[in-house]
Amino acid sequence: MNKLDMRGRTAIITGGAAGIGLAIAQRLVQSGAHVSVWDRDDKALAECAKTLGGPPQTVKVDVAQEASVATALAETLKRYPKVDILVCSAGITGPNTTVAEYPLAEWKQVLDINLTGTFLCNRVVIPHMTKNDYGRVVNIASIAGKEGNPNA
For the segment 44-90, what is each residue's pLDDT rounded down to a tens digit? Predict the structure, then answer.
């Protein structure tokens, strides 16, 4: 695997306490970056902190709520002076059922986290990056967005 030099860089990874987000956080920490892991799951955040070792920052956040995202950025900036990288990895799948039986509240939750959450994180973090004249954004989507699965 190529060695990345991320020393002096700070990254936020949403949904970073598990799955692809955690793997990205691990790689960035191994490459020398400061990492702020944002997630809504307290237990996963605690496990993530153990997995990453050292002093990673973990922040509980609901990416679907603009105030929560703004608060998470403020918490991150208390620890790190700038944010260079935003990786939006937070996402949920929702129930595996037919359209006719799919609960509307769960449909809205999938859209709020997967779509609105990505928008809000970009909207809150990008002005900070613009002010610092540097930033990289990676928005991750599921293959399910283009490849259908029965009842998904």
Answer: 999 998 899 877 799 999 999 999 999 999 999 999 999 999 999 99
The domain locations on the chain are 10-144
Interacting residues of 130 by C-beta distance below 8 A, sequence separation 6+: none
What is residue 94's DSSP assignment? -
Q: Any idea which fold 10-144 has?
A: Rossmann fold (3.40.50)
Angle between helices 66-79 and 117-131 (to 10 degrees): 40
Rounded to two decimals, what is the model's pTM?
0.92
Q: Which amino acid is at 14?
A: T
Which residues lie closer than 8 Å to 101 by C-beta, 6 or more apart? Answer: none
